[in-house]
Design goal:
The chain is α/β, with parallel strands linked by helices. About 35% of the residues lie in helices and about 25% in strands. The protein contains eleven helices and 15 strands. Strands 1, 2, 3, 4, 5, 6, 13, 14 and 15 form a nine-stranded mixed beta sheet that branches. Strand 3, helix 3 and strand 4 form a beta-alpha-beta unit. The two termini are about 15 Å apart. The model has no long low-confidence stretch (mean pLDDT about 95).
Length: about 425
């Protein structure tokens, strides 16, 4: 293992792999469309599986369709160290989101294999199923699938069962894909930041403190539609006026509350949506995110209090129901410490930051120790054909991942 400290990944090969994978589902504008369970997704999975095999890994597909490559370790029965991400995209995505985490993990194994180095622990590289829409792959592995299969129907109504069969999964055996700490000692995911903090601070690596929880709410405001010219101001029950006060109140709560939370209203419908008619009904959605579950609950309570006050003041009826309840996942402190040591040894600047986007690591972190490494996204752009991380930054991230696993392999032997 002393010689392995000098190992470095092949950056040219890594970036060539990124380009090759991006060719599957490539759009005319330079973006990538590789929706889960489509022909493009199947072709990309086949390519990754062949690369895993060539790198000396044994490959299997679990009941959730997760593609798992395993590079054997020296210790019989030792739990795996794991990495990975996803290769499915949004309808118009880029070539780095998710894909870098999978291909960097593959490059780590390629580097170990060609140098005839084995860790004490097995090393797994995982391609998680359908991260962009349902997160069904990592949720299943974490034992968090509690809904009926109808919950996971595709947007076009296609049931989840035949979708999983396409990629080698099996809904009827979905529980068999659950893992635990005895299987996976630690999970570390390399990912592009999908935000602008690293670029703004001019640092090449981010030590992720955790993945924020996400609370979403649907709010319905009911007033009284009436003629805009003949209804005096003091006789109105204006649903849009009430909703507008709520939007301002939500923003103020997020700004005035100590912490690092964010709150957004990005969706709204107004009825009947006519210039000369007082709005009679409005529905809108709230998105709350923070690394503290306690703070998310506090914010929820503050918003509910404002709803009651505004409803009473405006004479409207306001109801709020929760539509998403994803709890935050904190990164393991000792994994953060190891990533910091790696950054220092590589003479690379770093900063600590939470991930405000969801990741497979958030689900896997519910069953084992989790860490994440971020590399910059130019202009903070992601889920777009303009998504870009330089080849040098991709290589630095992959080397940081390699060195992190070399250290964790020794740490988990203690």
């Amino acid at each position: 293992m002393i010689a392995s400290v000098r190992l470095v990944v092949n950056g040219d090969r890594l970036n060539q792999s990124i380009d090759q994978l991006a060719a599957i589902g490539k759009l005319e504008n330079g973006g990538v469309c590789r929706i889960a369970f489509t022909t493009e997704d199947l072709l990309a999975r086949q390519l990754i599986q062949s690369w895993m095999t060539d790198a000396g890994m044994k490959v299997r597909i679990d009941a959730a369709g997760n593609l798992i490559g395993r590079y054997a370790g020296l210790q019989m029965g030792a739990p795996a160290l794991a990495t990975g991400s996803h290769i499915d995209t949004v309808p118009v995505g880029g070539r780095y989101d998710g894909c870098l985490g999978v291909l960097a993990g593959l490059e780590v194994v390629r580097t170990l294999n060609e140098n005839k180095v084995r860790l004490n622990h097995p090393l797994e590289v995982i391609v998680f199923t359908d991260e962009e829409r349902s997160v069904i792959g990592s949720k299943t592995m974490a034992g968090e699938i509690k809904e009926a299969p109808e919950h996971y129907c595709r947007l076009d109504g296609t049931p989840i069962q035949p979708c999983l069969e396409k990629v080698g999964g099996n809904w009827d055996q979905i529980a068999s894909a659950k893992r635990d700490r005895a299987d996976i000692a630690a999970f570390v995911e390399l990912h592009v930041e999908q935000g602008g903090v690293l670029e703004h601070q001019d640092v090449p690596l981010g030590v992720v403190t955790g993945v924020v929880g996400q609370y979403r709410f649907a709010v319905d405001v009911v007033g009284c539609p009436n003629h805009a010219g003949t209804t005096p101001m003091n006789m109105r029950k204006d649903a849009l006026f009430s909703a507008a006060q709520m939007v301002v109140a939500i923003n103020k709560i997020a700004v005035d509350t100590p912490g690092d939370q964010v709150a957004t209203v990005g969706f709204m419908n107004v009825y009947p949506n006519a210039t000369n008619t007082i709005p009679g009904k409005v529905n809108f959605r709230i998105d709350l995110r923070d690394l503290s579950q306690q703070n998310l609950e506090f914010l929820k309570g503050q918003i509910e209090s404002q709803i009651r006050a505004i409803a009473a003041e405006t004479g409207t009826e306001i109801t709020m129901r929760q539509t998403l309840h994803i709890l935050p996942t904190l990164a393991a402190s000792h994994i953060m410490d190891v990533i910091e040591e790696v950054c220092q040894e590589m003479n690379l600047g770093y900063t600590h930051l939470p991930s405000r986007a969801g990741h497979d690591a958030q689900e896997i972190g519910r069953i084992t120790d989790m860490g994440m490494i971020f590399v910059p996204s130019r202009a903070g752009i992601s889920h777009s054909e303009d998504e870009y991380t330089t080849p040098e930054e991709c290589t630095q991230g992959a080397n940081a991942l390699l060195k992190t696993f070399l250290k964790l392999d020794l740490l988990y032997d203690q």
